């Protein structure tokens, strides 16, 4: 007797309608406008590299009305990879659940207003079997840092697989080791989700974020601190992996929420970077 197939496990969208539009047509229009308006920042890859798109990007994860323009600067660098990139390894912080490991989701798909995004379950299971990640759906359930990246990924790259990982208080060398197992070739890219400084005056945030951006561009994990980047552990791990591979880092955009809202007393910083 044949058994009915097990339906896929789907994580519902947790912040659609809050951080980005829940209506598909409105979301498509918002993304189209953000990507079209993203200021060109020159080549997203250093001279001499063969790939027309970076191996990794760093993008912010606030509501699109605040950070969407900066995120679009990062994702615009990946546009030449559409049709070539098959998988995105997506790392970011857990804001609601304390973590001291890297947490994967047990779901097979993640829902978005633009349609479901497939999860690279084979890579996830291999990382889990190797003791490099734990499965923690509670940490992923209401977390926005990875979810807000999915509409950009689907719009820019199409129906690629995603490997979403929440990075807790983990040493940069451990995160770099994990990345090494899923680094792949030109078919894979890494996206790190992180905002920068939080709740300073705009002028102070500009100075702090400028210092953080300099550390990121220097591939200096120790120069990125928890008080200046909420995705610090994922970002440090990416920089360590990039340093080992002699990748160059380029700053694409650097702003604060005050640039979008006009409210300057207490802002959040956002940066976009490309590594290749």
Label the structural class: alpha/beta
Helix/strand order: EHEHEEEEHEHHEHEEHHEHE
Distinct helical segment count: 9
| Radius of gyration (Å) | 18 Å
Which class in CATH terms?
Answer: Alpha Beta
What is the fold named in CATH at topology level?
Protocatechuate 4,5-dioxygenase, Chain B
Relative helix content: 25-40%
Mean of the pLDDT scores?
A: 95
Q: How many structural domains? A: 1
Low-confidence stretches: none
What overall form do the CA principal axes indicate? globular
User: Biggest sheet, open or closed, and with what strands and sense?
Assistant: 9 strands, mixed
The CATH architecture category equals 3-Layer(aba) Sandwich
Strand fraction equals: 15-25%
Structure commentary:
With 276 residues, the chain is α/β, with parallel strands linked by helices. The protein has one domain: Protocatechuate 4,5-dioxygenase, Chain B (3-Layer(aba) Sandwich), CATH 3.40.830.10. It has 9 helices and 12 strands. The strands form 2 sheets. Strands 2, 3, 4, 7, 8, 9, 10, 11 and 12 form a 9-stranded mixed beta sheet that branches. A 3-stranded mixed beta sheet has the order 1-5-6, with no helix packed on it. The longest helix is centred in the last third of the chain and has 16 residues. It is globular and about 65 Å long. The termini are far apart.
Quick synopsis:
34% of the residues lie in helices and 20% in strands.
Strand and helix layout:
Blueprint: E1 10-11, H1 24-37, E2 56-59, H2 64-76, E3 87-92, E4 102-104, E5 109-110, E6 117-118, H3 121-129, E7 134-135, H4 137-141, H5 150-157, E8 161-167, H6 172-182, E9 188-193, E10 198-200, H7 202-217, H8 232-244, E11 249-256, H9 257-261, E12 267-275
């Amino acid at each position: 007797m044949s058994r009915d197939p097990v339906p896929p496990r789907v994580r519902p969208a947790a912040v659609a309608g809050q951080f980005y539009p829940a209506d598909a047509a409105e979301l498509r229009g918002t993304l189209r406008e953000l990507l079209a308006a993203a200021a060109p920042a020159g080549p997203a890859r250093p001279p001499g590299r063969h790939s027309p798109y970076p191996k990794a990007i760093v993008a912010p994860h606030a509501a699109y009305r605040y950070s969407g323009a900066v995120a679009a600067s990062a994702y615009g660098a990946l546009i030449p990879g559409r049709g070539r990139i098959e998988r995105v390894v997506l790392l970011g912080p857990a804001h609601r659940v304390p973590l001291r490991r890297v947490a994967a989701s047990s779901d097979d798909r993640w829902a978005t207003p633009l349609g479901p995004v497939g999860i690279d379950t084979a890579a996830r299971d291999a990382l889990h079997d190797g003791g490099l990640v734990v499965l923690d759906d509670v940490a992923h359930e209401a977390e926005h840092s990875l979810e807000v990246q999915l509409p950009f990924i689907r719009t820019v790259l199409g129906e690629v697989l995603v490997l979403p990982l929440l990075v807790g208080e983990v040493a940069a060398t451990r995160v770099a080791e994990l990345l090494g197992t899923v680094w792949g070739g030109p078919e894979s890219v890494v996206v790190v989700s992180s905002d920068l400084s939080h709740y300073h005056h705009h002028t102070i945030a500009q100075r702090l974020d400028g210092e953080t951006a300099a550390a990121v561009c220097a591939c200096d994990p120790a120069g990125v601190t928890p008080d200046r980047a909420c995705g610090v552990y994922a970002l440090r791990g990416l920089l360590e992996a990039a340093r080992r591979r002699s990748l160059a880092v380029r700053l694409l955009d650097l702003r604060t929420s005050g640039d979008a809202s006009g409210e300057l007393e207490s802002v959040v910083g956002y940066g976009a970077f490309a590594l290749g």
